[in-house]
Amino acid sequence: MAVYTQVSAEALSRFLTRFDVGALVSAKGIAEGVENSNYLVDTSEARFILTLYEKRVAADDLPFFMALLDHLASKDLAVPPAVPDRDGRTIHELEGRPACLIRFLPGVSVTQPTPAQAFAAADAMGAMHRAVADFEGLRPNSMGLDSWRPLFERCGRALDEIAPGLHADLGEALDRVCERWDDAAFDRCVIHADLFPDNVLMLGDTVTGLIDFYFAATDIRIYDLAIMHSAWSFDPQGRNFRPAVGDALIAGYSQHYPLSAAEKAAFATLASGACVRFALSRAWDWLNTPADALVTRKDPLAYMRRLHHYDPELATRTA
Ligand SMILES: Nc1ncnc2c1ncn2[C@@H]1O[C@H](COP(=O)(O)OP(=O)(O)O)[C@@H](O)[C@H]1O
Ligand SMILES: N[C@@H](CCOP(=O)(O)O)C(=O)O
Predict the structure, then answer these.
(1) Given ligand 2 and candidates 142, 298, 303, 307, which is best to mutate, with the most ligand atoms within 8 Å of its CB?
(2) Which residue has the CA at smallest separation from atom 23 of ligand 1?
């Protein structure tokens, strides 16, 4: 589940009077997601998503995120903008949390993407990268390369409580990625940085929504595709690589930006970096989320298994 902050019907009704969106008809907490509290809100006029921003989203970053959503929506991408109130404000406070009312988009997220769906989703990512060419916002990647070692050190030896050998394996993987990573070699732009299947809404093979831009940041453009490749091209446990899905992602993205020889050569390192990044954030959450919390902890080892696909020479204690 992801409803950390409860919103009473009275508070929500009062909140909605700031907007021209009709009166509250119903509101339900949304189970999916892990970062923020989300509600599906129906009014007498339309359906919306109400998001209350929790621990990982800094309130200071919200103007960047809202400007990005607006920019992408204004270019006719399937990205949901925040709804402005009567004074044009999109960022509010509700129940003590920063809050935004977001346009609802139809569609469902697929759990086992087909090659056709992967092609469409990567095509949409390519279109997004094109669309940010004239977006002026910048945001350093708070989950980028420079953050991985400090996070690894904060997790420390407790990593071995998740699986014996994880501290050594993740440390070795981190060293290898840092040695090979060449920040200066590639184009940079604002990237989504978390375009997992659950952040793409689809109807059949058509993308109807790219959502959850709350890790978006300025970073290596092709690293966004590497993140997507590591998230989409395996079964959820990371045991089986699905080459047809991986190839379809690269083909869909290449409609906008064919991979250069240098990007192809670096792709496995960028994807290994993505695996280290998600193994670390999942490990941190695993160690710091009580086992009985009402949120499903995601398995860090599913990313250790993916790592071995991209870097087969790594030790295999935890894969
Ligand atoms: N604009 C939207 N339109 C339709 N559904 C949405 C929208 N935004 C979020 N959702 C739904 O809410 C769920 C959680 O949203 P998400 O932004 O991924 O949460 P979190 O940031 O907590 O991970 C999504 O899986 C989707 O079902
Ligand atoms: N996609 C990340 C965690 C972030 O969760 P999201 O629900 O905000 O996409 C992971 O799977 O580790």
Answers:
(1) 298
(2) 33
